[in-house]
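Weekly puzzle thread! Below is a chain. First person to post its structure in token form gets bragging rights.
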Amino acid sequence: MSDTPAPDAAIPPTASPEVEFISLSHLNPSTELNPVPTRGIDLPFFRRYVQALEDAGFDYTLLPYGSSSADSFVVASAVGQLTERIRPIVALRPNTTFPTVGAQKLATLEQLTEGRAVVHLISGGNDAEQARQGDYLPKDRRYARTSEYIDILRRSWTEPAPFSHDGEFYRFDDFGPGFAPYDGPIPISIGGQSDEAFAVGGAKADIFSFWGEPLDDLRGEIDRVHGLARGAGRTTLPRIWVTFRPIIARTDELAWRKAQDYVTRIAEIHKQRGQGVPQNVGSQRALAFAARSELYDRALWTRTAAVTNAAGASTALVGAPETVAAAILDYVDHGASLVSIRGYDTLADAEDYGRHILPLVRQELAHRAATGRRGTLQAEHPGNYDPAYARYATAARS
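Winning reply:
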């Protein structure tokens, strides 16, 4: 159990005054709890899911990319036309799309959505997955390529006359002026835990993405990326994006029963798939945290990472809606302004988050803006700062 924070304290100086919520778009009803062997798009489900995100009040949705997945640009365009407010985040690997072409595609999406496009650049954390689409660069050079890619994207969107480029990874002559975005350059996000990721993200990214980690560890990582940004002469620091897999129920005790049922089912599925040692630093960190402890801070649970070999964002927040909302606010207090929450029962969880989590967090931030003080939510819902919470976790597991 962690040390209990002071109740109703002043707002920490590291706190973000705002938070926006991100989800992940799903193309069909297959989930980690009930996987369906398909790579297809179930169009009625997809329409329903995207509308659920809009109705729930999410601000963004991430369109993931993999060598065997649907094309993220095409899906993002569909999201843009199916919604009025949600901002589609295109996951893009620099090895798959030449940067001037990527700039055109993103600017086109930005025009079609009237200013809602965002891009998340994935340098690639797995050599075998990169090789499936012909990319054999070592990981450190992949981040160097991402750095060059960012420069070309921004020039493509802003240069008033044709320009040429002769770099380490890309070469072209007299490109442009490129197709312009709707209203200025499109926000660029990157993530990763390697030294190369921090160097590129600190110097050039608008958004830097993390998976859910213990609060003090994440705060150190935020300080690191912001320090690199300042060292690069930046006055506007990257926004911080952090991702969790909340498991909620009416009470903390019921949430723990649900969490133990979920993890048993997920573990069996991943056991059948087999697991190797992950190459990416983010997964290695998640597994190290899981080996050290299952519970951190107010509600962070790492067993979901342990049983999935930390394959992607996999750390959970477990508890009643109030407990999970308070835990999210802890991360906002540490500097996160973008919070991605996606569940294991994808559609039902998205709807539940919209009903029970997003309003609580936004209500607290509105209270802070009006009063200059924290509200009572964090003090009244201590989660793991109360010994009873850990007993629920233990009882549910036995």
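Puzzle host: Confirmed. Bonus trivia for everyone else. The radius of gyration is 21 Å.
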